[in-house]
Specification:
The complex is a heterotrimer of chains A (about 270), B (about 475) and C (about 200). Chain A has about 270 residues and is an alpha/beta fold. Chain A has ten helices and ten strands. The model of chain A has no long low-confidence stretch (mean pLDDT about 85). Helices cover about 60% and strands about 5% of the residues of chain B. Chain B has a four-stranded mixed sheet with strand order 3-4-5-6. In chain B, strands 1-2 form a two-stranded antiparallel sheet. The longest helix of chain B is centred in the N-terminal third of the chain and has 27 residues. Chain B is elongated. Chain C is mostly helical and about 200 residues long. Chain C has one domain. The mean pLDDT of chain C is about 85. Classes of the chains: A alpha/beta (about 270), B alpha/beta (about 475), C mainly alpha (about 200). The interface between A and B is medium-sized, with 32 and 26 residues.
């Protein structure tokens, strides 16, 4: 059984799990994130945007992999640019990178355990945390199989298992649904909903229907800036009938993006 | 700490540490089993042999370490790792510990492969065996960690074979080429003692001074620390990480002996005689007491036959070899001297009893006067006496096979062998009293330098 | 020609060529500085040739064999050509040493070692993949250059340390020839494994 840690019941001293003000992040020499504002709390947040909109760069910055070039970023109430608190923030962070790297000869359980250790999970909590993470992504049957023997979908689930093993307060999943079959995606949406009950979950995707089905709200970015925020229902409602798309949410996405582009030009 | 232990277990099993260790252990063990004649019965030589095999093991461990050091890069784990709180130094620790443990174990496996040929046979255990082995294992740990650091810093596959060859050149092949071009041990620069690969010639009765063990330990500890630090720190930590290696090498350089030869010293305890309890006394030096069982009977046979000669030697004892003549250093008049029996009297099949007995005869009948006045017949005569002493019906060593590359050098021509064999048979056909009288004459001749007695002996073969 | 350039670059051939050249050049330079003998020590020569074969071995495969395989090329012929070119490079480098003060000679020994080690590397590429293709050649060479290895009348020893036997030692020549034929055949027809180690 999971033990309750002091940190779990300590009162939260910050308003937003993720808070960015005028954030700029460089990808190489290019300003991939350019003056972005963001305030995210508990819940499932969908990060939408075209390819090249800066989603992955933003995710990498939120995961503390790259430093912001300017602006302010606070994670769990701590200023990210001050390196001293980075270690503490990272203990409560879960991250599934877009290009998920893994050791092919590790078993799923070993890999998840390894990541738990990297996240400095207390020794006595590790076995339970690993088992729970593997169960939550439905990989119990494959827990002792080598990572290299997994199919694409199972590999994604193993990637999510490693991201949630420390019960992160901020969970960042970059393109988690790539390689999942339709049934797996339905299961995955259920998983997102349960994870979003107690943590701030940011899911980057370009698949609009995932967002509509599982997210509590939507952040749309375009050329490194926040283009729109709101709930999936608001997004669906915003859709003009004339806009391209096969569902209300898709039409909403096209409409909102089109409107933002027009404003940006002006 | 339990979680670190578990991670060490996982990393060690899954990361490729085991294949790296096997890559060292298997060839090392095979080489040890293929070269037993170099060390059998002798602990120090066993330890030295494994240190020689380091010339193969060190480069492979550096390469293996580099391969492991590239692991995060090869499997694209950098992104995920950068988001975790555990610092780089902590992250590398389980792999570094696992690698160190297994390569040290692989070194010991090489030692263990040679142990059956020493254990239970050697009666003398020089303590330097332990320090030589410890330093060898430590050198593999340092090699592994330096490799780990190199692989992390330069995660390009081409780096690995280059590192392997550079390490081999620097620690083994280079020093070996320096040795090849030197006339004696003291013309070799003492700096060659810095490499953990054993490149020097060591006699059985010698030992390596504690100073060498100390300076090598200091250098290797410095290198190991630098390897681990370099593997742990980011770009900014490189300069301070180099400090232990520089300090270690500098400290080791200060401890280097003035000449290479000064690093080796006679081991007084290895030279203590060990003698048989029963029968005519046969003695070897302590480090060779594994030979005593096998050489006692042939030596006693020769000594027993010799008792018929007035004033003949009653003991046989191992001594050192005279560097100029290549013959044993002679001892008191009652003692036949011989050098390391297994090394001196060796044929393709191993120790040659016949050659040993002939050697004792040669030594007992060594002329006590200017050798240049002695005729060629003299040596053939001694060969006849040797066969008689050993109770053999023909020459003990018609084809002494001194292998010079692929040539076999024959001492006697076919006519001489014939003549000698006839002389032996004629001698043995004589009445016992006549046999001892003739041999006694030959013995007296060697003391007084009169060649007629030998002529009488050889005349037996001509008649 | 353009295809050749792309092929060479995709396999990082220039880098390997540079290291092979540097390996031979460094061996000759060190020998010329420290010895008066014009013939480079066989141990140094063999080790340097081994490094050349090793780095050329890295070019025997690509990062993604699965991606390459279905491409409509005549791979066996291409692979055989690749090996032949590698052989040509190493032989040319060995011959080029004769222009300097330190030579790789005698030629039959150099050729035997080049052919044998390259064959062993090709065999390694088939069994272990290109990344570690050089491993067997490295281990065998390092055994050959150990202080107690050398010319020997024993056939087993001659084969085990074939890289340092004198020219005309049958067992050593046979050993090198077998490695060369086995390596070239296996690599030409099978190429590298799809999932590299």
């Amino acid at each position: 059984m999971r033990t309750v840690r002091a940190a779990d019941i300590a009162p939260q001293t910050y308003r937003w799990s993720i808070e960015a003000r005028n954030l700029t992040v460089k990808a190489g020499r290019h300003q991939a994130v350019n003056g972005l504002d963001l305030s995210l709390g508990i819940g499932v947040h969908g990060l939408l945007g075209a390819n090249g909109a800066g989603k992955t760069t933003l995710m990498r910055c939120l995961a503390t992999v790259i430093q912001p070039a300017g602006g302010e970023l606070s994670l769990l109430g701590a200023e990210v640019s001050r390196g001293s608190r980075l270690r503490g923030i990272r203990r409560d962070l879960g991250y599934l990178p877009q290009a998920f790297g893994y050791y092919p000869r590790f078993t799923v359980r070993e890999f998840v355990e390894y990541v738990a250790w990297l996240k400095e999970t207390p020794a006595q909590d590790i076995p339970g945390a690993v088992q729970r993470a593997v169960e939550r992504v439905g990989l119990e049957a494959k827990a002792d199989a080598k990572m290299k023997s997994l199919s694409g979908g199972m590999l994604r689930r193993a990637g999510i298992a490693q991201a949630i093993v420390n019960d992160p307060a901020v969970l960042l999943l970059d393109e988690p649904t790539v390689g999942l079959d339709p049934e797996q995606r339905l299961d995955f949406r259920d998983l997102l909903r349960t994870l979003g009950v107690e943590s701030c979950l940011l899911v980057s995707t370009h698949l609009v229907e995932d967002v509509a089905a599982a997210c509590t709200d939507v952040v749309m970015i375009h050329e490194g800036r926040t283009a729109w925020t709101g709930t999936p229902e608001e997004l669906a409602a915003a859709g003009a009938d004339s806009a391209p798309g096969d569902s209300p949410t898709e039409r909403g996405y096209a409409t909102v993006l089109g409107r933002y582009r027009e404003q940006a030009v002006r | 700490m339990t979680s670190l232990n578990r991670i060490i277990g996982i990393e060690t099993r899954r990361s490729g540490v085991v294949p790296v260790a096997l890559l060292v252990a298997v060839p090392a063990a095979a080489l040890m089993i293929a070269s037993t004649s170099y060390y059998d019965g002798r602990w120090l030589r066993l330890a030295v042999a494994v240190r020689t095999v380091l010339q193969l093991a060190l480069p492979l461990v550096v390469g293996g370490g580099a391969w492991l050091g590239m692991r995060e890069h090869r499997h694209h784990l950098g992104e995920l790792l950068a988001s975790t709180p555990r610092p780089r130094a902590g992250r590398i620790r389980p792999l570094a510990i696992g690698l160190a443990g297994l390569v040290a174990a692989a070194y010991l496996a090489g030692f263990a492969a040679g142990m059956p040929f020493v254990l239970g046979r050697a009666g003398y255990f020089p303590v330097a065996t332990l320090s030589l082995t410890a330093v060898g294992a430590l050198s593999l740990v340092a090699a592994g960690w330096l490799g780990l650091a190199a692989g992390r810093a330069l995660p390009r596959l081409i780096v690995i074979p280059v590192l392997v060859v550079l390490t081999a050149g620097l620690t083994g092949i280079g020093p070996m080429l320096v040795h090849d071009s030197s006339f004696d041990v003291d013309s070799v620069p003492p700096a060659l003692w810095l490499t953990p690969v054993w490149t020097f010639t060591v006699q059985d009765f010698e030992t390596v001074t504690g100073r060498i063990g100390l300076l090598q330990t200091i250098a290797l500890l410095g290198l190991a620390a630098t390897g681990l630090l370099l593997a742990s720190v980011g770009r900014r930590g490189i300069a301070p990480a180099l400090v232990p290696a520089v300090a270690g090498l500098a400290g080791a350089a200060l401890l280097l002996p003035a000449t290479s030869g000064a690093a080796l010293a006679d081991d007084a305890r290895a030279l203590v005689p060990r003698c048989t309890d029963a029968g005519p006394s046969v003695c070897v030096i302590a480090v060779h007491d594994y030979q005593l069982d096998e050489i006692t009977a042939p030596a006693q046979q020769v000594l027993t036959r010799l008792t018929v000669v007035p004033g003949a030697p009653t003991r046989a004892a191992e001594t050192m070899m005279d560097d100029r003549s290549g013959l044993p250093v002679t001892g008191p008049a009652d003692t036949i001297s011989f050098t390391d029996a297994y090394a001196t009297y060796r044929s393709d099949e191993g120790f040659s009893v016949a050659a040993f007995q002939q050697g004792l005869a040669d030594q007992a009948f060594a002329p006590d006067c200017d050798v240049s006045t002695i005729e060629d017949d003299y040596y053939l005569g001694v060969a006849v006496v040797g066969a008689w002493l050993a109770g053999a019906g023909s020459l003990l060593e018609p084809h002494p096979d001194d292998n010079f590359g692929d040539r076999t050098v024959l001492i006697w021509g076919p006519d001489e062998i014939d003549q000698a064999d006839r002389a032996i048979q004629a001698l043995r056909a004589l009445p016992e009293a006549r046999q001892t009288a003739l041999v006694g004459q030959v013995w007296t001749m060697t003391r007084t330098c009169r060649p007629e007695a030998m002529a009488a002996l050889m005349a037996l073969g001509k008649a | 020609m353009r295809w050749m350039t792309l092929y060479a670059r995709s396999r990082q051939v220039p880098r390997s060529l540079f290291v092979a050249l540097a390996s031979v050049a460094l061996a000759c330079l060190l020998w010329a500085v420290f010895s008066d003998d014009p013939t480079v020590s066989d141990r140094l020569m063999t080790t340097s040739v081994m490094l050349g074969a090793a780095v050329l071995g890295l070019t025997l495969g690509t990062v993604d064999e699965e991606l390459n395989r279905p491409a409509a090329h005549h791979w066996p012929r291409r692979r055989a050509l690749h090996l032949l070119l590698a052989l040509g490079v190493l032989v040319a480098l060995a011959l080029a040493t004769r222009l300097g003060p330190a030579h790789f000679e005698p030629f039959p020994v150099v050729l035997r070692n080049v052919v044998g080690l390259l064959g062993l590397t090709a065999l390694g590429a088939v069994v272990l993949g290109p990344d570690l293709s050089w491993l067997g050649a490295a281990v065998w060479t390092l055994i050959g250059v150990l202080p107690f290895s050398g010319p020997s009348p024993d056939v087993l020893t001659q084969a085990a340390t074939w890289t340092v036997q004198t020219s005309g030692t049958t067992a050593a020549t046979v050993c090198a020839a077998v490695l060369a034929v086995a390596g070239a055949t296996a690599y030409t027809f099978y190429g590298c494994p799809e999932r590299a180690a």
